[in-house]
Amino acid sequence: MAVLRLFLLFLLTPVLAVQAVRVRRATPRLPGAAGPTAGALGTGPPFRLAVIGESTVDGVGAPTHAEALTGQLASAIAASGRAVRWQALGSTGASARVVLDELVPRIQPADAVVVVLGVNDTLELRSAARYRRDLLKIVIEVRRRIGDVPIVLAGVPPLGSFPSLPRPLRDVLGAWSAALDRAARSLVRLPGVRYVPLASGLLKPDMFASDRFHPGPTGYRAWAAALAKELPAVTAGWHPGELRRPS
């Protein structure tokens, strides 16, 4: 079956290449979110949040970081009675390897880290094994730098449901993103690591920005709410201010 899939991919390569070029030319290039990439809000017990990843962490599709994924996630946590200090470490176009090399070294101490990746690794046709290795290295390096912090891995968005992609390109990238998503899910065997799939309800047309590829503020709000629901489970047993620090 794997050989058959590779053969079909080979036959479709010319069509896929043409479609990819057309999509790239037709898709508006939206900027990252404006405003500070770190902030504080809410009252109550302190909670330090770091979100790291690709263009969705860079806030593409939202006017400001307050309306993008990290700001909306911080707001959802603050609504539960926490004083949240947040940081958004995002880079448009970044693969997991780029995040490991360029963004992880900039991470500040946190009580939970959310990793949002997979779209660019899908577009670059990275293998699931390589993607898993890079995610594992991110987990290891984050903990080496800031201690035994709990980590949430956001599910890889299913590109097969992106309205900006034509078929058969959508089908190929959808299957590829699903394979990377399974690779991410396999890391829940690690202590303190949780995987949160992207709910199908987040893929409605009104959830997307004008490029029909990135979330808009409404999509980011719904995505943040889904991630916020899972944070208590992954942070159970960890307490702010009591994390082990590297010696």
Provide a short characterization of the protein structure:
This protein has 247 residues and is of the alpha/beta class. 43% of the residues lie in helices and 13% in strands. α7 links the parallel β5 and β6.
Task: Give the tags.
Rossmann fold, 6 strands, alpha/beta, 43% helix, six-stranded mixed β-sheet, 247 residues, disordered C terminus
Structural description of this entry:
- By secondary structure, this protein is α/β, with parallel strands linked by helices.
- The protein has a single domain, classed as 3-Layer(aba) Sandwich (Rossmann fold).
- A six-stranded mixed sheet has the order 1-3-2-4-5-6, with helices on both faces.
- α7 links the parallel β5 and β6.
Computed over alpha carbons, the radius of gyration is: 18 Å
Which CATH-level-2 architecture? 3-Layer(aba) Sandwich
Helix content: 40-55%
* Unreliable residue runs: 1-11, 238-247
Strand and helix map with partners:
Blueprint lengths: L1 H25 L11 E4 L4 E8 L1 H4 L10 H10 L4 E8 L5 H8 L8 E5 L2 H5 L4 H19 L4 E4 L14 H17 L7 E4 L20 H19 L12
Parallel strand pairs: 2-3, 2-4, 4-5, 5-6
Antiparallel strand pairs: 1-3
